[in-house]
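# nightly structure sweep
# worker-07 picked up a monomer target from the shared queue
# config: single-sequence mode, recycle default, output format = structure tokens
# input follows
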Amino acid sequence: MEKIRALQLSFIAILSVVIIEGFIGILVNSLAILSDAAHALFDTVTMLILFLTTRVALKPPDEEHLYGHAKIESIGGLVGGISLLVLAAIILSEAALRLMGEVAHVHPEIVGFVAVFYTLGVDVFRMTIAQKALLDKNENSITIKASFFHAIADFASTVIALVGFGIAVLTDYLQADAVASIILSGSLVYLSVKLLKSSYLDLSDAVPRDFAEKIRVEIENEKGISCCKELKVRRVGQKSYIETTVTVRNSMTLQEAHDLTAKIEHKIAKKFGDSTVTIHVEPEEQK
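# output follows
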């Protein structure tokens, strides 16, 4: 599938950044470049998790996973979010030690800029392949979107690393390198909180209130439905599972009720995407 190929290419590209930036960051003693390499290392782990969980999530339902395996993607996101918080704490503590202690000398080798510009090129490549997968194949994949947004975040963080390293090399303000790392750690915390929140909401079967309300309105607007009650909605990956009870007129035949619910199911799937709708039909209460 296209999204598997896109994740594979993104994994290989970001792994090369870890190797090149990590080596050159040590060579020029730049915490900003090393921090960006650490960010890339996290993204390498994230891409690996996304790749593995996507492959598992694509497996069909079995006897133990009647709703399929799509929730595994959210577990991968949860693990990635926690590891990102740990990484941010390590970078922040190292930057704080440099600021409070003796200022570390940043070696002004041109190779440091080579590492940063290489990383920028890789980030652009990752954004391109992810966007192509989303547009060309009309792939509504949460993993591809995650890869795309991570590439954008990496591009921004690399620009920060470039500014920090550049100021430290071209001016006498050597602490700019550590300040840039603190900014990077802040962006990592922001990303991790968003990832953790999204994963938690998915694992806890939370859906936006307006999403459920739109489904209710869609059902109640269907001719022949008197009331929609006990509506339950849960998401498993990109698929929605909807259960509800509707009341219809007493004179409606079994075939008419069946045709009506089939029409509602088709209507919901067309408007809200891949859905499994279970509708229980009850007659109106006699007055």
